[in-house]
Amino acid sequence: MNSRIRSDTVALFEFFELYAYFVYDFAAYVSALFASVSDLESKKHIYDNLLDEIGIQPCGTARWERHHGELYRRFLESLRRTQSYRDAIDVNRMNELDALSRGISRRFYDGHQRVLRAGDDCVALAAFSSIEGWVSRQYAIWRDVLGRAGEEMRFLDMRTIDLHCECDVEHSRVLDEILTRFVGAGETTVSLHAVNSGLLRGIELSVDLFDDIQHALSQPAQMR
Question: Where are the alpha helices (DSSP H) in the chain?
Answer without folding.
Answer: 2-7, 9-24, 26-36, 40-54, 68-80, 83-88, 91-117, 121-147, 159-185, 188-216
